[in-house]
Design goal:
Elements lengths: L7 E5 L2 E5 L5 E2 L10 H11 L1 E4 L5 H17 L32 H4 L2 H7 L2 H11 L3 E3 L4 E5 L22 E6 L5 H4 L1 E5 L8 H5 L21 H8 L2 E4 L7 E5 L4 E3 L8 E10 L23 H4 L11 H8 L4 H7 L1
Parallel strand pairs: 3-9
Antiparallel strand pairs: 1-2, 4-10, 5-12, 6-12, 7-10, 7-12, 8-9, 8-11
Helix pairs in contact: 2-4
Bound molecules: 2-oxoglutaric acid (AKG).
Length: 333
C-alpha cells in the first residue's frame, strides 16, 4: 500500500512489479497546462512525455473500439469468446499467439469512419497545432494494435523505426476504451530522452535505423525494464487509462508496455504528429506500401522464418556498444 492508493502486482515487460511503487510509479496528467503551449512544450522537453486526460471525446473512442472489435469478430472464429457479448472484447480461450488480426497500417480498419473520427479528428489536430505553434500533420500509417493475453511491448525508442523525416516528431498513444495497468498500458521512462546517463544509449541504439541497419527481430533494446533503469537511471511510470486519455512522447523517450494479464483484448493505436512544413518519413505517408510486420511485437512470430545471415541481432550490437555485462557476454560468445 502507498499514499497513491492500493498496490497491485502487474507485469512490466518480463518483470512482476508492484504498482504503484518505486519501480513503477503513477503517471500524473498535465491537464492544468492545457491551453498554455509554451508550458506544455517545456513539460514535454523536461519529462519526455505529456499525459493528458480526455483529449479525445470518450464517446467517440467507445465507437472506435466497437468498430475494431467488429473487425476482429469478422476476421474469423476463435478470437472473441462467444459466451459473452462481443462488445465486451473477451478473448476466446483458444486464441493464442498470432490469432488476432494484424491491424497496423491496414487501411480498411485504420481509416474506417469511427476510427478516423478519433485519430484524425479536430481535437488532436488542434492540440498539436497549439503545441507546435504551426499546422500539424499526422502519418497516414496508423499502428493499430489488438494485444492478446500475456503480450507486451519491450523497451525501445521510436527513433529507430521512423527517423527519415523531421526530428520534431511525436508519438500519441491512444487506448481504445478504459485500459487498466493489468490490461497492458504504455509505460514511459521519465527523462530517458535527456539524462546524461542515457547519452551513449541514445548515440548508439537510439541512432539506429532498424531497416537500414538490417536488424533482426523486434527492434526493442530489452524486454526487461530494469536493464534500462539499472544501467542508465530514469523512472518507469504508467497509470490506468480511461477512454479519451492519451500519452504523447518524443522519439527519444524510452517506453514499453505492461503485459495483458486479463482475458480482454487490449486495443490501442499509436499515431505520429509533426509540423506540416517539416519533411515526413516517406515510408508512412500518402500511399504507403503495406507490408507485413518486420519489427515490433509481431516480428517475434517471424524471426525464425527469415534468413538471418545478412541480419544483425540486438545482442550482437549491445556487445559491440559495450552494453553487455559479463554473464550476458558469455551467452553471446
Ligand atoms: O501499444 C504498445 O504496446 C506499444 C506502443 C508503442 O511502442 C508506441 O506507441 O510507440
Amino acid at each position: 500500500m502507498t499514499s497513491d492508493g492500493d498496490a497491485r502486482v502487474v507485469r512490466l515487460g518480463t518483470r512482476d512489479v508492484t504498482f504503484p511503487s518505486a519501480e513503477l510509479c503513477q503517471l500524473h496528467d498535465c491537464n492544468h497546462l492545457l491551453g498554455v503551449s509554451q508550458a506544455l512544450m517545456e513539460e514535454l522537453r523536461d519529462k519526455g512525455y505529456l499525459f493528458i486526460r480526455g483529449l479525445h471525446n470518450p464517446g467517440e473512442v467507445a465507437q472506435a473500439r466497437l468498430a475494431v472489435l467488429e473487425y476482429i469478430l469478422e476476421a474469423g472464429e476463435g478470437k472473441l469468446q462467444t459466451g459473452h457479448p462481443w462488445e465486451a472484447g473477451v478473448l476466446d480461450q483458444k486464441c493464442g499467439r498470432g490469432c488476432l488480426p494484424f491491424m497496423e497500417g491496414v487501411r480498411p480498419i485504420t481509416h474506417v469512419e469511427a476510427v478516423s473520427k478519433v485519430l484524425e479528428g479536430p481535437r488532436p489536430f488542434s492540440f498539436f497545432k497549439n503545441l507546435l505553434g504551426q499546422e500539424a500533420r499526422t502519418f497516414d500509417y496508423k499502428w493499430l494494435r489488438g494485444i492478446n493475453r500475456k503480450e507486451f511491448t519491450g523497451a525501445h525508442v521510436d527513433n529507430v523505426y521512423m527517423s527519415r523525416g523531421t526530428d520534431e516528431l511525436y508519438t500519441m498513444w491512444t487506448p481504445f476504451g478504459d485500459v487498466s495497468v493489468e490490461m497492458g498500458t504504455l509505460a514511459v521512462c521519465e527523462r530517458s530522452h535527456k539524462l546524461p546517463e542515457f547519452q551513449h544509449f541514445q548515440e548508439t541504439y537510439g541512432n539506429m535505423d532498424v531497416e537500414r541497419d538490417h536488424l533482426q527481430g523486434t527492434g526493442w533494446f530489452t524486454e526487461d525494464p530494469f536493464e534500462i533503469t539499472r544501467r542508465f537511471g530514469g523512472q518507469w511510470k504508467t497509470t490506468d487509462f480511461q477512454a479519451g486519455d492519451v500519452l504523447i512522447f518524443t522519439m527519444r523517450t524510452v517506453h514499453m508496455s505492461t503485459a495483458n494479464l486479463t482475458n480482454y483484448v487490449r486495443i490501442s493505436c499509436d499515431t505520429r504528429w509533426q509540423p506540416l512544413s517539416h519533411p515526413a518519413d516517406p515510408r508512412y505517408i500518402d500511399n504507403f506500401e503495406f507490408s507485413k510486420p518486420r519489427f515490433g511485437l509481431h516480428a517475434q512470430n517471424e524471426v525464425l522464418s527469415r534468413p538471418s545471415e545478412t541480419k544483425v541481432t540486438i545482442e550482437t550490437l549491445k556487445k559491440k556498444w559495450g552494453f553487455l555485462d559479463a554473464s550476458e557476454k558469455e551467452k553471446t560468445n
